[in-house]
């Protein structure tokens, strides 16, 4: 068994696929550099991300897959499901070994699992476009904290750049410890480390003095449009799962209310 050690990026994974074929590696498992433990009785192959090698794999896949199938690979990778790298590798090997498009062969577990993983990421990115709640800081920056199941920031950045093109904003993924920042011209990736999730006291310190007022306005609006007699908690939770609530203004009680 060979452990493939890579940097966790999509380009790094593509480089690893190239080198698996280049060095004829067998029985591979993938591990990210920062979380890797050497496997018992295994060899370790370290991968340095190489744009040329990654693009050669991408070009080969693009020739053999539909536009939708090609993008599904990236969506599936961002799902971060357990063993998704191995699933994607088996799918890729099947694609390269076949003379026809394999996307419709759902009898193969790797094909079906890639499709499911891509669907999961797509659904999560769609939800994040609706569930992001911005707050204003004292220096005029709008920020939001999210904690999605999948790594969706690369998929939603264009949406928010188009929608909020006239203001500076930051969306921070507290699960993955990085965010995307828009400076009125470009979107860039930023990394921030907290010992835990940013505390309410810390956020209160950096917030604009009118932020609490506008948060309460939003809570009151949300409450006023709710029709109690038509309340359907089960349906509500289906469309807005509880795991998102801690970052939704309308779901956080007004702690200062007397």
Describe the structure.
This is TIGR03915 family putative DNA repair protein. The protein has nine helices and eight strands. The chain is of the alpha/beta class and 258 residues long. The strands form two sheets. A five-stranded mixed beta sheet has the order 4-5-6-7-8, covered by helices on one side. A hairpin with a 4-residue loop joins strand 6 (169-173) and strand 7 (178-182). Helix 5 packs parallel to helix 6 (153-163). It is elongated. The termini are far apart.
Brief summary of the model shown:
The protein has 258 residues and is α/β, with parallel strands linked by helices. The protein has helices at 10-22, 51-64, 67-78, 84-97, 109-131, 153-163, 200-206, 211-225, 233-239, and strands spanning 2-6, 28-32, 43-46, 135-136, 142-146, 169-173, 178-182, 187-191. The longest helix is centred in the middle third of the chain and has 23 residues, at 109-131.
Task: Give short descriptive properties of this protein.
five-stranded mixed beta sheet; elongated
Low-confidence stretches: none
Which structural category do the helix and sheet elements fall into? alpha/beta
Compute the average pLDDT.
88
- So what's the overall shape? elongated
What percentage of the residues does DSSP assign to strands (E)? 5-15%
Order of adjacent strands in the largest pleated sheet: 4-5-6-7-8
Chart the SSEs and their pairings.
Elements: E1 2-6, H1 10-22, E2 28-32, E3 43-46, H2 51-64, H3 67-78, H4 84-97, H5 109-131, E4 135-136, E5 142-146, H6 153-163, E6 169-173, E7 178-182, E8 187-191, H7 200-206, H8 211-225, H9 233-239
Parallel strand pairs: 1-2, 1-3, 5-6
Antiparallel strand pairs: 4-5, 6-7, 7-8
């Amino acid at each position: 068994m060979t452990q493939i050690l890579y940097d966790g990026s999509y380009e790094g994974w593509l480089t690893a696929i190239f080198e698996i074929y280049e060095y004829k590696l067998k029985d591979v498992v993938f591990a990210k550099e920062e979380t890797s433990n050497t496997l018992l009785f295994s060899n370790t192959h370290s991968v340095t991300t190489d744009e040329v090698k990654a693009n050669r794999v991408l070009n080969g896949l693009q020739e053999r897959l539909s536009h939708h199938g090609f993008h599904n690979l990236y969506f599936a990778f961002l799902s971060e499901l357990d063993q998704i790298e191995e699933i994607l590798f088996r799918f890729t090997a099947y694609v390269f070994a076949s003379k026809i498009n394999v996307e419709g062969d759902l009898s193969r577990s790797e094909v079906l699992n890639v499709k499911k993983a891509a669907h999961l990421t797509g659904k999560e990115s769609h939800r994040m476009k609706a569930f992001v709640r911005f707050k204003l800081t004292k220096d005029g920056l709008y920020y939001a904290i999210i904690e999605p199941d999948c790594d969706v920031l690369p998929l939603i950045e264009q949406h928010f750049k188009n929608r909020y093109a006239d203001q500076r904003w930051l969306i921070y993924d507290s699960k993955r410890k990085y965010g995307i920042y828009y400076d009125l011209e470009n979107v860039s990736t930023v990394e921030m480390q907290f010992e835990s999730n940013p505390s309410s006291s810390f956020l209160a310190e950096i917030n604009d003095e009118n932020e609490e007022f506008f948060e309460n306005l939003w809570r009151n609006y949300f409450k006023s449009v709710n029709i109690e007699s038509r309340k359907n908690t089960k349906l509500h939770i289906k469309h807005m799962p509880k795991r998102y609530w801690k970052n939704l203004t309308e779901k956080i009680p007004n702690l200062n209310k007397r």
